[in-house]
């Protein structure tokens, strides 16, 4: 009987550990316009672990959202922050490695609030490997059935019922689907993403008044 009880508690402990391991990591992004919390998908472990590593190394502290496009996305991840001066010349800077693509489609698609990895174009990056540090959060637009029907015909694709509903109700950027790695989503602070999306930008989509990431930190599971 005692042996049975011991085995029972070992089994319970193993189940508990397994459940803990399967929980999704969360990261708090503190900006000068508010806080955003994202969760990272376990189905994209290379991107998840790389993002966590960069957060722990404070690589994102004091950088800017350097590209903001209304009804599309907000992008950050520069290794070096540009000057606060709106006249400063902006130069893209990536880390010296890439993360292999982990495109989990159609389960994850470009619905509003999705956390995605930026990358170089297919002409120079046919394997669609991701930038190690640059990421974007989808804002997108709302679509009508007519617009979605037209997109399906032009791109020779078929949207799932979940995609179609999301793009009509929540909004997003379906033209990016299946081409970029989506490795997480906003779970808190989408109103902050909305505020950032609406800031005034210059001709290069750089905010006139800098939007800064003060710091990021891993939240306890």
Question: Which class do the helix and strand fractions yield?
Answer: alpha+beta
**Beta-strand percentage?**
15-25%
Average pLDDT: 88
Shape summary: globular
Q: What can be said about the biggest beta sheet?
A: 8 strands, antiparallel
Helicity, as a percent range: 25-40%
- Major β-sheet strand ordering: 3-4-8-6-9-2-1-10
Q: Short summary of the structure?
A:
With about 220 residues, the chain is an alpha+beta fold.
What does this 3D model show about the protein?
It is a single chain. The chain is α+β, with helices and mostly antiparallel strands and 221 residues long. It contains five helices and ten strands, in the order αββαββββββααβαβ. The chain has helices spanning 2-22, 45-56, 145-155, 161-169, 190-197, and strands spanning 26-31, 34-40, 65-69, 73-76, 98-99, 114-117, 130-131, 135-138, 182-188, 213-219. The chain has an eight-stranded antiparallel beta sheet with strand order 3-4-8-6-9-2-1-10. Strands 5-7 form a two-stranded antiparallel sheet. Strand 1 and strand 2 form a beta hairpin. The longest helix is centred in the first third of the chain and has 21 residues, at 2-22. 33% of the residues are buried.
Features of the shown structure:
eight-stranded antiparallel beta sheet, two-stranded antiparallel ribbon, about 220 residues, alpha+beta, globular, 10 strands
